[in-house]
Amino acid sequence: MAGILISVFDWFKRLRHQARNLSLPARVERTARNTEAVDLKPYTPEPKVFLGQLAYLQLSQFEILTSELKYSPNTQYKAELSEAAAKSFEKYRAISKKIAALGIDPTDAMDPYVERIETFHSRTNGIDWFESLIKVYLVAGLLDDFYRRLAIGLDPITRADVEKALGDKKFEVFAKRVLIESMAEDPTLSHRLALWGRRLMGDVLLELRAAFDNRKLAGIAKSKKLTVEQEREVNLASYSKLEPLVTELIGAHTMRMDAVGLTA
Question: Which residues, 6+ apart, have CB-to-CB distance to 72 below 8 Å?
Fold first, then answer.
């Protein structure tokens, strides 16, 4: 296991180096470039797995935002955050309804991923309201990008419903404005939030990697018995296939940081 983890982080360091070479245009409202370098259609999980993970990610995001309401620096931000949290819950509810429409209990679909996602959030807890705000801004943005891309292998109706649910940008607009305003009032925030934003990227990559089946990515049957070394090779093969996509997502992360005046 230690060898596998070392391989993951070596891979991540290489990707970060590649992503730094991505050119960024002058600051305007930007969206991540979609190179479509990786065809994710063969690797999209079955609907129950895909939607179960996505639903719990949206529900946990809503939980984080509502828990931060009491720490809001002022009443205006508190009111606006409550509206953004409500929109976040609507995203969860849309995904949950889609699961139910497939004849699946939403809690049954989410339960297998609760521990993994809660562990992810426990590793990425901010120390104050601002760190929590930028965490959700960066993490939700990246994961929404990722799940939109991964939805390509779903049936057209389900894919369209997922894309529609993930299309709401109310929280992103709120977070960008508040972060820019707050850092202008307190320049000491900038350095701390920049460091925090960089630190989050590694955990996000590990979370999105968990959404894939390594053996499926590497073309190895699930039933085949492998030695530890062979399992390591399977992991490395799957990571290699994802490199163009992950480099693209790191570039999107850099753009989100840049949009609020931070260096990734």
Answer: 78, 81, 129
pLDDT tens profile 20-70: 444 333 333 334 444 456 778 878 889 999 999 999 999 999 999 999 999
**Residue 90 pLDDT exceeds 60:** yes
Give the whole-angstrom CA distance, residue 201 versus residue 135.
Answer: 10
225 HSE (CA, 13 A, CB side): 0
Under DSSP, the state recorded for 37 is -
| CA–CA dist 123, 84 (Å, integer) | 24
Contact between 19 and 250 (Cβ < 8 Å) = yes
- Cβ–Cβ under 8 Å, residues 9 and 202: yes
Are 82 and 169 in contact, with CB atoms under 8 Å apart?
no
Q: Which residue has the tokens 């939030």?
A: 193
> What is the token pair recorded at 158?
């389900």
Longest dimension (CA), the chain: 58
Least confident of 80-89, 157-166, 180-189, 231-240: 231-240
pLDDT at residue 74, rounded to an integer: 97
- Taking alpha carbons only, the member of 4, 59, 8, 2 closest to residue 206 is 8
**Domains in the chain: ranges and CATH:** 39-212 (1.20.1260.10)
Predicted TM-score (pTM) of the model is: 0.81
Q: Contact at 8 Å (CB) between 181 and 74?
A: no
Distance CA 255, CA 48 (A): 32
**Rounded distance between C-alpha atoms, residue 37 and residue 126, angstroms:** 33
Phi–psi pair at 45, nearest 5 degrees = -65, 165
